[in-house]
TrEMBL record:
It comes from the Eukaryota. Mn(2+) binds at H109, D132, H134, D136, D237, D239. Its EC number is 3.5.3.1. NCBIfam families: rocF_arginase (TIGR01229). Its cofactor is Mn(2+). The keyword Secreted does not apply. The keyword Translocase does not apply. PANTHER family: ARGINASE (PTHR43782). This is Arginase. Pathway: Nitrogen metabolism; urea cycle; L-ornithine and urea from L-arginine: step 1/1. Keywords: Arginine metabolism, Hydrolase, Manganese, Metal-binding. It comes from Schizopora paradoxa.
Length: 313
C-alpha cells in the first residue's frame, strides 16, 4: 500500500458491507450490484493489495410490505428506506469503532444516509466527498420524483422542513462546510437553490473541464479539510463516470468523468491518509447488455482498489 490510512488500525482490515437494496429508486436490478461486485472477485483483489478482508455475506434487510409502507407526501417506500439505512448505519458504525475500513457496496444511493451516519457516529468531525452526476440533496419539499436516492444529503444535513418521525434516528450533525461535490451535471432547480442557500461547495463537470481533475481534488480537499486533519468519507456514485465508462446504472447522464478522472479522485484521496470509509453505489447489472455490465462491474471494483491504495507504479 502506498500510504498508510492513519485512522485505521493494524492489521488493516476492510469490512465489505454488501447492501442489496433498490428501494430508494424505481428500477429493479440495482440490488444485484453488490452480488456482482463480490462475484467479480472484489474480496481477493483487496487481499492482493495487502488488506485483511472481513465479509460474511450481504446484508439481509427486513421486509416491509408495500401495504404497510404507503408514500409519505410523494416519498416512495419511506419506512423501508429508513429502516434499511438505519441497519447499514449500525454495521458501518460498528466496523469503524473496531478500527476497520468499511467498504459499502450498493445498492442505490439512499444507503448513504446509513453509511455516512455510521461514519459520523464514530468520527463526528468527518467530512464527506460526494462523487456523482447528481447532488442527491432534494428535500421532502423539493423532490419531484419522490425517489429517496435523490435525497440522502438533505436528511444528513437536517434541512428538511417537514418532520418525518421515521427518520428521527438520523443525527444531522454534518455541517454544510464539511460536504463537497465533484462531477455534478444534472442538478434539479430546487437543489441548486439549496446548494446556494447553504453555501455548499460543488465542482461540476464545468470546473473539472476548466481546472483539470488534479486541481479540483486539491480545491475540494482545501474546502472540506483545510488542515488535512479530518477523517474523510468518500461516497462514489458510478453515474459520476461518463456512461461510456459505466453504462449499467439507473440514471446515466452524458458528459461525465473519464475512467482516469474517476480513479484519480480515489487515488488522491487515499494518498491523504485520511480516508475512513468508501461507498460504491448505483451499479445496476440489469441495465445494458452483458459486456456493458461486465465493464461497469469491473470499473466498480477498480475504483474500490484505487481508494484502498492501488497505485499505477
Ligand atoms: N443517486 C442517484 N442516482 N440520484 C438521482 C437523482 C435524480 C433526481 N435529482 C431525483 O431527485 O430524483
Ligand atoms: Mn447519481
Ligand atoms: Mn447518487
Amino acid at each position: 500500500m502506498s500510504t498508510e490510512l492513519k485512522f485505521i488500525t493494524e492489521p488493516k482490515t476492510a469490512a465489505i458491507v454488501g447492501c442489496p437494496f433498490s428501494g430508494g429508486q424505481p428500477k429493479p436490478g440495482v440490488d444485484q450490484g453488490p452480488i456482482h461486485l463480490v462475484n467479480a472477485g472484489l474480496v481477493d483483489q483487496l487481499k492482493e493489495l495487502g488488506w485483511k478482508v472481513a465479509f460474511d455475506g450481504h446484508h439481509q434487510f427486513e421486509e416491509v410490505s408495500a401495504s404497510s409502507d404507503p408514500p409519505i407526501g410523494i416519498l416512495k417506500n419511506p419506512r423501508l428506506v429508513s429502516r434499511v439505512s438505519q441497519a447499514v448505519a449500525g454495521s458501518v458504525g460498528a466496523h469503524a469503532r473496531q478500527g476497520q475500513f468499511p467498504v459499502t457496496i450498493g445498492g442505490d444511493h439512499s444507503l448513504a444516509m446509513g453509511t455516512i451516519s455510521g461514519t459520523l457516529s464514530h468520527y463526528p468531525d468527518a467530512c464527506v466527498i460526494w462523487i456523482d452526476a447528481h447532488a442527491d440533496i432534494n428535500t421532502i419539499e423539493t423532490t419531484e420524483s419522490g425517489n429517496i436516492h435523490g435525497m440522502p444529503m438533505s436528511f444528513l444535513l437536517g434541512i428538511n422542513e417537514t418532520h418525518i418521525p421515521e427518520y428521527d434516528w438520523i443525527k444531522p450533525i454534518l455541517t454544510p462546510d464539511r460536504l463537497v461535490y465533484i462531477g455534478l451535471r444534472d442538478v434539479d432547480k430546487g437543489e441548486k437553490m439549496i446548494l446556494k442557500k447553504h453555501g455548499i461547495k460543488a465542482f461540476s463537470m464545468h470546473e473539472v473541464d476548466k481546472y483539470g481533475i488534479g486541481k479540483v481534488v486539491e480545491m475540494a480537499l482545501d474546502h472540506v479539510n483545510p488542515k488535512r486533519d479530518r477523517p474523510v468519507h468518500l461516497s462514489f456514485d458510478v453515474d459520476a463516470l461518463d456512461p461510456s465508462v459505466a453504462p449499467s446504472t439507473g440514471t446515466p447522464v452524458r458528459g461525465g468523468l473519464t475512467f482516469r478522472e474517476g480513479h484519480y479522485i480515489c487515488e488522491a484521496i487515499h494518498e491523504t491518509g485520511l480516508l475512513v470509509a468508501f461507498d460504491i453505489m448505483e451499479v445496476n447489472p440489469s441495465l445494458a447488455d452483458e459486456s456493458a455490465v461486465a465493464q461497469t462491474v469491473a470499473v466498480g471494483c477498480s475504483l474500490v482498489r484505487s481508494a484502498l491504495g492501488e497505485t499505477l507504479l
